[in-house]
Amino acid sequence: MSEKNNTIQHKLNELSQLVAWFQGSDFTLEEALTTFKKAEKLADEIDADLTKLKNDIVVVQQRFDREA
Fold first, then answer.
1. Distance from CA of residue 37 to its chain's centroid?
2. I need a surface site. Which of 3, 10, 13, 37 has the fewest CB within 10 A?
């Protein structure tokens, strides 16, 4: 599935493909749970990446405010 060094954009594209699968002609009920779990895991990774990025931005902003 996804590697740790994937960018957020790459993960979003991958998640988009997984979501699109549910509306596509390849959809099968038997595979739905597996695909859903993959999408859920990827969404959690994206959320964690965005949270880390937000925290990094806050730290940089605080440093900038102190130096200004």
1. 13
2. 3
Is residue 47 in some structural domain? yes
Judge whether 22 and 35 are in contact, CB under 8 Å. Answer: yes
Residue 2: predicted pLDDT: 43
The identity of residue 50, as a single letter, is L
Alpha helices in the chain (DSSP H): 8-23, 29-67
Instruction: Report the alpha-carbon distance of residue 24 to residue 57 in Å, rounded.
Output: 38
Number of independent structural domains in the chain = 1
What's the pLDDT tens digit per position in 12-38? 999 999 999 999 999 999 999 999 999
